[in-house]
Amino acid sequence: MKMRKGRNRDLRHNRMGILGSPLLLSVCVGVGVGVGACGDGKSEDTQREVQGTLRFSAVVGDALASCTTSYAGLGTTSSEAKLGDARFFVSQIALKDGAGAWVQPTLTAANGWQSSGVALLDFEDKSQACSDTGTVDVNEKVEFSVPVNASVAQQSKGLRFSVGVPFELNHNDSATQPSPFNVPGMFWSWQGGYKFLKVDWLVDTTSTSTASATTRWNIHIGSTACSAPAATSPPTAPCGRPNLATIELADFDWRTDEIVVDFGALVENADLSLDHGQAPGCMSSPAEPDDCTGVFSALGLGFESGACIDACEGQSVFRVQTAP
User: Fold this and answer.
1) CA neighbours within 13 Å on the CB side: how many for 218?
2) What does the pLDDT average to over 141-166?
3) Average confidence (pLDDT) over 130-147
4) 207 CB contacts (<8 Å, ≥6 apart)?
C-alpha cells in the first residue's frame, strides 16, 4: 500500500509529556504518602501498587494516522481518503504473566478518559478533515495499576482486551453517565448503546465517475439486534449481534511495548468508492453485508453472528511493536 508520510513520530510522543513514557514505573511506598495510594499500614505486599500505561499508536499502513494527511491505496479499489474521525472504546483488559495466567489490572481515573474499567482512545484532534466531529483532545493511552506483588507488576507476556463496551454498561443513559460515557458522537441510543469503534473516511472521488460514488465512508461498530420496546428503552438481555471483538496479543510487555492500531488494515477488504444503498460505509446493520463483511473480518468478527471467529485470532488491525 503506497502511503504519504504522516506527522513526525517524535512530535506525537513529545505531546504526551514525561507521563507518557511506557517505561514509567511508580510504586507507592510507606505510610503517609496518601491513604488512597498506600492504604493504612497493612501488609506492603497488599497495599503497594505499580502504576502502568498501555500505549497505543495509530497508523494507516506505514504512515501515522492524522486528520491532516491524505492516504492513497485504501481498500479493494485503492481509494484515496482522509480520516474524519478515529475513536474506539477498550474494556475487559487483562495482562498475561510468565506462567500463562491472566491478571486484570485496575483502570485509574485519568482525566475523564476512563471509568468503570472502560477507556476511550481518541486519535482525532478536530483539525482539518476532522473539524466537523470529535474533540480537540487526544488520548492514546490507558492508565492502570496492579499490586506490587502481582505477577505482571514487573513484566507481562501478553495482552487481551475487548473493542467496545460490555453489555452491563452499554445501554445506560449517556446524558447521566460520567466521562467518557457522555462523549458526544459515541452513542446511538439506549437500545443500541455505544458506538464501540468510530472511524470515518472522507473519500476523494475526483477520479470516480459512477453515480454511486460517495464522498464519506463511515465505520460505526456497535451491538445490533438489541431487543427493546423502543429505541429509548434499554434491552434486558444481551443483543443478538454483540459485535464485541476480543483482541489477544502475544509477547506484549507493557513496560517496553506499544499497541499499533492500523486503520488502513481495517478497510483493506472494503470498497470505499461505492455506496451500496444503505448509509455510506458500515453502520453494523444486518442489511449491510457488502460494506461490513470485510470490516468485521479485519476485527476477527463474523458479520452474520457478531461474535469472534476462532477467538478473533484472524484480526489484522492490532499488533505489537517495541515502543520508541
Assistant:
1) 18
2) 97
3) 95
4) none
- In the predicted model, is pLDDT for residue 105 greater than 50? yes
Extents of the domains making up the chain: 9-322
Q: What is the C-alpha separation between 186 and 175, in angstroms, rounded?
A: 12
C-alpha–C-alpha distance, residues 181 and 112, integer Å: 9
- What does the pLDDT look like over 8-44, one tens digit per residue? 444 343 434 333 444 343 333 322 233 334 444 455 5
**What pTM value is reported for the model?**
0.85
Strand partners, 301: 308
**Strand pairing class (187-189; 102-103):** unpaired
pLDDT in tens, 158-199: 999 999 999 999 999 899 999 999 998 999 998 899 999 999
Q: Long-range contact list for 42-48, CB < 8 A, 24+ apart?
A: 44/148, 45/147, 45/148, 45/149, 46/147, 46/149, 48/147, 48/148, 48/149
Coil vs helix vs strand at 105: coil
Q: Are 57 and 142 in contact (CB under 8 A)?
A: no
d(CA 235, CA 257): 39
DSSP string spanning 188-240? EETTTEE-SEEEEEEE--TT---TTB-SEEEEEE--BS---SSTTS--SS--S
Question: For residue 241, what are the β-bridge partners?
Answer: 224
Grid cell for residue 244: 464485541
165, 158 Cβ separation under 8 angstroms: no
| Per-residue CA distances from 79 to 74, 85, 159, 197 (Å) | 5, 17, 33, 21
User: What is the pLDDT averaged over residues 303-309?
Assistant: 97
